[in-house]
Design a protein that fits this description.
Length: 101
């Protein structure tokens, strides 16, 4: 399941989360982001121990600035509130597995 979050719940949903969070910065008008979301949704059960959160860059410019988002989609792997890795662009299911697990 992909959770839509915003600046007001970012701390609770991402930074205070114990465990892994796959954080996706996206825009609804972005075709690469749309395909990435479909791929992520298809990985639901495999990613049952990873919380997947997405942030709309147009609706949350302060988060986009804080995380230096200059192109989308961009994905961050966050574990126990700390950034562990970052990748950019549309990813295949296999690339997402390698990045997140």
């Amino acid at each position: 399941m992909v959770h839509e979050i915003n600046a007001s719940d970012f701390q609770r949903e991402v930074l205070d989360n114990k465990g892994k969070v796959l954080l996706v910065f996206y825009a609804p008008w972005c075709p690469h982001c749309q395909r990435l979301e479909k791929t992520l949704s298809g990985l639901g059960k495999e990613f049952d121990k990873i919380k997947i959160c997405k942030v709309d860059v147009d609706e949350n410019p302060e988060l986009s600035d804080e995380y230096n988002v200059d192109s989308i989609p961009v994905l961050y792997l966050i574990e126990d509130g700390k950034i562990k890795d970052k990748t950019m662009g549309e990813k295949t299911a296999e690339e997402l597995r390698e990045f997140s697990l």
